[in-house]
Amino acid sequence: MQKIVPNIWCQGNAAGVGDFYAAVLPDTSAEVVASYPTEDLPDFQRELAGQPLVVDVSVGGYRLRLINAGGEFSPTPALSFIVNVDPSSFGSGEDEARAWLHAMWESFSDGGVARMPLGEYPHSQLYGWVEDKFGVNWQLMLTDPARGPQQVLVPQFLFTGAAARAQAAIELYTSLFPDSGRMLMPHQGDTEGVAFAAFTLAGQSFSAMDGGTDHDFTFTPGLSLEVDCADQGEIDKLWEALSAVPEAEQCGWLVDRFGVSWQIVPANMGELMQHPGAYQRMLGMKKIIAAEL
Question: CA of 13: how far to CAs of 6, 24, 35, 113, 148, in Å?
C-alpha cells in the first residue's frame, strides 16, 4: 500500500484535471473518491457544495490525489514529478516508448511552459522538463531498461535559496519512516549542496537537489505530501517531528522547517469522514484527532 501520496491543489477543476491526466499519462485512470457535503459548509467553500472534493489518479498503480479547492494556492516547480518511461514496458520497445514520451510532451506543453527542452542529455537519451497548463511540473525521462524497474512517478524536491538544505531535509525525512535510505551526489568544486539525491521513504522513491538562488519560487501547499498513518500514535510522532510553522497548522496540514507542506492523516480518513458532522469537526482541528471525528 502506498503510504505517502502526493496531493495537487486544484482550483475548482479537479475532475477535469483528473480526466486530462488520465488521457495523457500511460496506464492512468481517475476517480472521484470524496465529495463536499451539500450543507453546513463555511462561507469560503459554499460554492463547492456537492462538488468533487478528492479525485484519485492512478498512474501505473502509483497514486496521486487531486484536491478540489479555491484559488488560495498553486503548485510550483519546487515539487515536480519525474515520469520514468521504460521501453521494456511497451510492446514495441523503445520506438513505442519514445512515441508515448513525445505525445506526453506535446500534451503537457499545450498551454504550458517548457523548462528544459525535450532532447538528449547526459542522464537520459530523451528527457524534458515541462510545466503543464495547471502549473504542475513534469520531468519526462526515457529510462535505461538495464537499470531494472523504476517507480513510474518519482516526486522530486528542488530546494531553492541561499542555504543548501537538501541533505538536511533528506536526513530528517529518512529518520521518520521505516524502509528508508539515501544516495547523495554532492556538487563539484566550490558549489555547496546536493547536485542530485535519490532516496526512499517507506519503500517509495523520491529525489532531491539544491537549486541555489537562481529561482523565484519555493514550496507551497499547492503540492503537498499526504501520509496515511496507522494510528494516532503515528500521527502524533510525525506531527511533533515535522510541524515548524504553527500558523500553517489546519485540518491535518502542516509546514516543515524546509517549507514543505504535509498532510498527516489517518489511513482510514475516508471512512471517518462518513461519520455525521465529521467534515465540520475536522475544519476545527489542527492536528487530526481520529477519535473525535
Answer: 17, 17, 13, 20, 37
CATH of range 79-212; options 3.30.720.110, 3.40.640.10, 3.30.70.1280, 3.40.140.20: 3.30.720.110
> In this predicted structure, what is the pLDDT of residue 100?
95
The CATH number of 4-71+222-292, from 3.10.105.10, 3.20.20.70, 3.40.50.970, 3.10.180.10, is 3.10.180.10
Let me know if 133 is exposed, middle or buried by CB neighbors in 10 A (0-12, 13-18, 19+).
Answer: middle
d(CA 255, CA 242): 7
> How far is residue 201's CA from residue 266's CA, in Å, rounded to a whole number?
18
Q: Specify the pLDDT at position 75.
A: 98
In terms of Cα–Cα distance, which of 77, 75, 102 is closest to 90?
Answer: 102
- Tens digit of each residue's pLDDT (9 = 90 or more) over 15-31: 999 999 999 999 999 99
Q: Tell me the three cell numbers of residue 291.
A: 477519535
Q: Where are the beta strands (DSSP E) in 70-166?
A: 79-85, 113-121, 124-131, 137-142, 153-160
Q: What is 166-211 written as a DSSP string?
A: HHHHHHHHHHHSSS-EEEEEEPSTT--SEEEEEEEETTEEEEEEEE
What CA–CA distance (Å, rounded) separates 137 from 220?
13
Please say whether the dihedral angle defined by the alpha carbons of residues 230, 37, 64 and 168, taken in this order, is positive or negative.
negative
